[in-house]
Structure formats: C-alpha cells, structure tokens
C-alpha cells in the first residue's frame, strides 16, 4: 500500500503543477488571516476562507439587488449609507470623483496600519476617529474625505471601522467598470490609534515595499493587483508642482490603463504622474509578471483585486463569526459611465 502512495504522489503533484499557471503558483500569501479563521465553520467565515483560497469569487458583479420595502436585518442602514455615498462619489458624467478616489485610499490607510506583530490597528476605523492619526504625514490629503465620512457616520450611526471599508467598496463600484466587491460588516471600532510606520513610503525601494506588504500577509501578486487602485488616483503631495496630476490617463474609470501607463517612458505620458514606488515595483523581478498580466484583462484584475482587498479589509479583525454580508446594498456594476 505505501508503495502505491509513493508512486501516486509524484504523479498527482505533477498533475497539479500542470493545472496551475505560473501566476497561480506565486499567488500564495503567508496566510496571516487564515490563522484566526481556522476552526470556524459558520457560513461567513467559511465564505471568507473560500474566497481567500481562490475557491469562490469576491466579485458580485452579476448579482441583482433591490432595497426591500420593509427592511429588518443588519444591512438596512447600509441601504441609506449607500444612497448617500452614491450622491457623494459620482460625477454627473457618471465617472467617479475626487471623493471616491480619496475613499479608496482611506480604506487602505485605515486597514493597512497593521502587521503580523501588531496587537491593535488594522481595519478598525481609527483613522476616522479622534486619535490624531489624520495628522500623520502619510495621511495627508485624506482630511476632506474623513470629514465627509464622519458626517455619514454620525447621521447613520454605523461603526467607523465598517464605514471605512464599506466606503472603499462603494467607491470602487461607483467608478465605471469597477468591481462590485463583497462587503462584510460587524468589525469592532478602535480603542486607540494604529501603530505608526506601517504604511508604504512612496520613495522606498521595491524590496522594502514587498517586505512591508508580506508582513501584512500580502503576496507580490496581491500587491500588484492592489496597486491597480492607482487607476483611479491623483497625487498632490509627492510633487506639488504637479498637484492633481492623475496616475493614469483615465482616473474617472476603473480600468487597466494604469498598468501600461506606468511602464511607459514619462516623456511619452506628459499628462500623468508616475509614482516612484509604482515605477520600481512594476519592473521588480517578483512583481513584473503579475503587473503585465493585468494589462487589458479587466475581469482577471477585478477578481485578483477583490481577493486581495478582502484580505486588506480584514487586517486585524478577529470577530469573524459576527460578520454579516451586506453586498446587496452596494450600487450595481456599470460597464461604462453612461449606464445609470
Ligand atoms: C506601495 C504601496 C503604495 C504607495 C507607496 C502609495 C502611495 C500613494 C501616494 C504617494 C499617493 C498620492 C497622495 C497625494 O499626493 O495626494 C497615493 C494615492 C492613492 N493611493 Fe496609493 N500607495 C500605495 C498603495 C495603495 C493601495 C494598496 C491602494 C488601495 C487599495 C491605494 C490607493 C490610492 C488611491 C485611490 C490614491 C488616490 C487618492 C486621491 O486621489 O485622493 N494605494 N498613493
């Protein structure tokens, strides 16, 4: 019997290797979230585990949803929050606006202040609360969206932690072609400011940035996917002489142009601003294949972004059994700006 296994195992492994593409092979992340998820078999933690394992999708583009006439569940208030955010995040042209791009960055900066050694921080709303985090230089430019989100919080009395992540997911789908990412609520609000020094520095080396994200459980493939959020971005503080330059040619649309634009010679893209960090990561040996794989592949990128951002949106979260799926309250996916 052991002889048969000895023979079957290499054949089976070879078969799996053939099935897995090179990208899937280096997609594996250290799995910091998988640890607290172990041993929970309730439907939501199980769904999260399945998404992180690549068995299920984090993108709900095709799901229909309509606000119920009588609403009685934990998601009711989010229908109202969603209506308010649509009004704040969408231009009359149908594209997403400065509030939307700031909300996308805000969600990342709230959750991203965490690593494997942290005893607090992560997706806990601390950046929106009164702990002074907004005055840290790395959060420059997030003051207006914080004020807007705080007013939404006080009107609807939702948690700061959930609102920061809900606003991120709302903003991505508000951008035409942006994926409608599954959104879970039920996180606990912070009791103190997040640890310092855990957000990426735009002038850091690619090796340091990769290591920083790895300490959050984020692989190089996930990092390449996440940086695509700069498809919707502008800069104001890296080079103040080029304030409001966008990071790709179409900042109002969630598309893959950013990946190609970043690879070009800046002389050929005079109207955009290339962040030094994006530039060095896009050509790094551990990132470049993933980076190029997203060019012109919006659906593939959307799936990768959804999976990677789900991980970000749960950094530091431990109460997985209390999470509720409120994806139905998000606006519907729009393939272009003119769709209402
Ligand atoms: C290596 C990692 C990263 C670095 C060094 C970085 C750095 C920056 C910098 C310097 C800006 C411009 C800020 C300004 O001058 O106004 C910016 C903007 C932005 N970033 Fe990142 N970022 C990183 C990762 C991410 C991730 C993971 C996300 C989202 C998941 C994200 C979303 C955004 C967005 C949406 C903006 C535009 C904000 C606006 O226009 O108001 N970034 N980022």
TrEMBL record:
Residues 142-231 form the Plant heme peroxidase family profile domain. Residues 1-20 form the signal peptide. Ca(2+) 2 binds at residues 231, 248, 250, 255. Its EC number is 1.11.1.-. Heme b binds at residue 230. Its cofactor is Ca(2+); heme b. Disulfide bonds join 75-326, 96-175. It is an enzyme of class 1 (oxidoreductase). SUPFAM superfamilies: Heme-dependent peroxidases. Ca(2+) 1 binds at residues 110, 122, 124, 126. Binds 2 calcium ions per subunit. Binds 1 heme b (iron(II)-protoporphyrin IX) group per subunit. Keywords: Calcium, Disulfide bond, Glycoprotein, Heme, Iron, Metal-binding, Oxidoreductase, Peroxidase, Signal. One of its GO terms (molecular function) is heme binding. InterPro entries: Ccp1-like, Haem_peroxidase, Haem_peroxidase_sf, Ligninase. GO terms for biological process: cellular response to oxidative stress; hydrogen peroxide catabolic process; response to reactive oxygen species. The active site is at residue 109. The record marks 105 as: Transition state stabilizer. Belongs to the peroxidase family. Ligninase subfamily. This is Peroxidase. It comes from Amniculicola lignicola CBS 123094.
């Amino acid at each position: 019997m052991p002889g048969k296994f000895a023979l079957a195992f290499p054949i089976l492994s070879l078969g799996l290797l053939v099935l897995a593409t090179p990208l899937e092979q280096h997609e594996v992340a250290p799995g910091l979230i998988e640890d607290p998820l172990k041993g929970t078999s309730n439907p939501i933690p199980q769904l999260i585990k399945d998404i992180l394992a690549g068995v299920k999708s984090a993108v709900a583009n095709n799901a229909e949803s309509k606000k119920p006439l009588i609403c009685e569940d934990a998601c009711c208030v989010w229908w109202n929050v969603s209506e308010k955010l649509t009004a704040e995040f969408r231009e009359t042209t149908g594209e997403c606006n400065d509030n939307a791009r700031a909300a996308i960055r805000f969600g990342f900066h709230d959750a991203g202040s965490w690593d494997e050694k942290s005893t607090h921080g992560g997706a806990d709303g601390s950046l929106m609360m009164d702990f002074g985090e907004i005055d840290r230089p790395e959060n420059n430019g997030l003051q207006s969206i914080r004020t807007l989100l705080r007013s939404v919080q006080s009107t609807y009395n939702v948690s700061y932690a959930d609102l920061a992540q809900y606003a991120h997911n709302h903003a991505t789908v508000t951008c035409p072609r942006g994926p409608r990412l599954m959104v879970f609520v039920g996180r606990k609000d912070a009791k103190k400011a997040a640890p310092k020094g855990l957000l990426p520095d735009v002038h850091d080396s690619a090796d340091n940035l990769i290591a920083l994200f790895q300490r959050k459980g984020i692989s190089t493939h996930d990092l390449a996917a996440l940086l695509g959020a700069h498809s919707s971005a502008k800069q104001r503080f890296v080079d103040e002489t080029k304030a409001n330059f966008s990071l790709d040619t179409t900042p109002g649309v969630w598309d893959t142009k950013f990946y190609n634009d970043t690879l070009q010679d800046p002389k050929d893209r005079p109207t955009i601003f290339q962040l030094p960090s994006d530039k060095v990561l896009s050509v790094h040996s551990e990132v470049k294949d993933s980076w190029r794989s997203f060019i012109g592949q919006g659906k593939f990128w959307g799936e990768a972004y959804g999976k990677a951002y789900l991980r970000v949106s749960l950094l530091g979260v431990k109460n997985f059994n209390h999470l509720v799926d409120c994806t139905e309250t998000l606006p519907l996916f729009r393939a272009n700006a003119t769709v209402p």
